[in-house]
């Protein structure tokens, strides 16, 4: 098997279960799940309104990270902007002109209600050029066979001098290398491609980007992986099911059973938050000492 980014040999890394194995590129360190095909219907089955506070909090983090880079009045394209919070912040606080590309029906509907111009497909904005293109925790969902084309397409949609801002899990993270199949971001059903700084440089090479900055960072508390003991219990006994609920649906939960379930779930979420607070200092300390942290941050200038 060859790497779909740089055509070098893929080498077996570890086996997760009967269904999935992981291979790493010998040259660019791209780590890919095999089979490397997508099993999720992002239009219908992905986003869940129950977890809406998470994308909202993450968007605040992304905003604080990049608000000094994205200038007032800029045109911005966000790939996979979920409920549209990041675009909304930029529109309201920086008077930007943001477009969110989001396949999930429920998330894109919400994003539109926030006043963000939203489409389900990148081809809907073909021909437009942007000052900034941003994508946070999306590239790991893309099949390796499509990465180069997607990158090429996005790069061609940048104005000269425009910037491409990316956040994705770091394939070279010390914790990832140590934990392997227990790494919280492995999420085998949805995450297929894990990038390293080297993979990014390989991707960029072909485009002669004039300025790049690649570093790894400690994820925000809100993105601190969620596999606490209590969260595992919650997932086992009260698994989240995807429900299509309208964002402004104020209807009370109709029957006692489902409302009890919801109360229990909220208790689990509350307790797991405290458990997370307990683990966080250790996690933070460990990450602070590592050269390769969990999150890869990439800034490319055209
Ligand atoms: Zn490679």
Short description:
This protein is α/β, with parallel strands linked by helices and 302 residues long. The chain has helices at residues 53-66, 85-94, 105-113, 144-156, 174-179, 197-205, 229-237, 256-289, and strands at residues 10-15, 21-25, 31-34, 75-79, 97-101, 117-119, 130-136, 158-169, 193-194, 211-217, 295-301.
Key traits:
302 residues; alpha/beta; Rossmann fold; 7-stranded mixed beta sheet; 4-stranded antiparallel beta sheet; 8 helices; 11 strands; binds zinc ion
Number of domains: 2
Output the number of helix runs. Answer: 8
Question: What is the assembly state of the chains in this entry?
Answer: single chain
Shape: globular
Any guess at the CATH architecture of the largest domain? Answer: 3-Layer(aba) Sandwich
**How many angstroms does the end-to-end distance come to?**
32 Å
Radius of gyration: 20 Å
Question: What would CATH call the class of the largest domain?
Answer: Alpha Beta
In CATH, the topology of the largest domain is named: Rossmann fold
**Into which percent range does the helicity of residues fall?**
25-40%
Q: Say which molecules are bound, naming each kind only once.
A: zinc ion
Poorly predicted ranges:
242-251
CATH superfamily of the largest domain: Vaccinia Virus protein VP39
> Main sheet?
7 strands, mixed
Q: How much beta, percentage-wise? A: 15-25%
Q: How confident overall, as mean pLDDT?
A: 86
Q: What is the element string, with H for helices and E for strands?
A: EEEHEHEHEEHEHEHEHHE
- Report the strand count: 11
């Amino acid at each position: 098997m060859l790497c779909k980014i740089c055509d070098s040999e893929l080498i077996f890394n570890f086996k997760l279960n009967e269904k999935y194995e992981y291979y790493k590129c010998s040259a660019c360190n791209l780590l890919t799940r095999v089979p490397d095909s997508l099993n999720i219907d992002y239009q219908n089955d992905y986003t869940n309104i129950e977890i809406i506070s998470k994308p909202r909090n993450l968007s605040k983090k992304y905003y604080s990270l990049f608000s000094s880079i994205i200038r007032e009045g800029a045109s911005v394209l966000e790939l996979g902007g979920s409920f549209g919070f990041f675009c909304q912040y930029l529109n309201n606080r920086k008077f930007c002109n943001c477009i969110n590309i989001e396949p999930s029906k429920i998330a894109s509907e919400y994003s539109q209600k926030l006043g963000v111009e939203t489409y389900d497909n990148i081809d809907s904005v073909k021909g437009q050029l942007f000052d900034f293109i941003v994508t946070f925790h999306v590239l790991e969902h893309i099949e390796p066979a499509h990465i180069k084309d997607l990158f090429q397409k996005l790069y061609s949609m940048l104005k000269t001098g425009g910037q491409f801002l990316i956040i994705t899990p770091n394939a070279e993270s010390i914790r990832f290398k140590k934990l392997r199949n227990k790494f919280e971001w492995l999420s085998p059903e949805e995450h297929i491609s894990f990038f390293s700084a080297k993979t990014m440089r390989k991707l960029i090479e072909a485009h002669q980007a004039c300025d790049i900055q690649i570093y790894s960072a400690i994820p925000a508390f809100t993105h601190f992986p969620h596999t606490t003991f209590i969260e595992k219990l919650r997932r086992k006994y009260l698994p989240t099911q995807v429900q299509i609920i309208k964002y402004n649906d104020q209807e009370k939960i109709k029957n006692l059973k489902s409302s009890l379930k919801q109360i229990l779930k909220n208790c689990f979420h509350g307790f797991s938050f405290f458990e997370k607070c307990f683990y966080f200092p250790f996690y933070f300390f460990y990450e602070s000492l590592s050269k390769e942290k969990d999150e890869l941050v990439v800034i490319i200038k055209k």
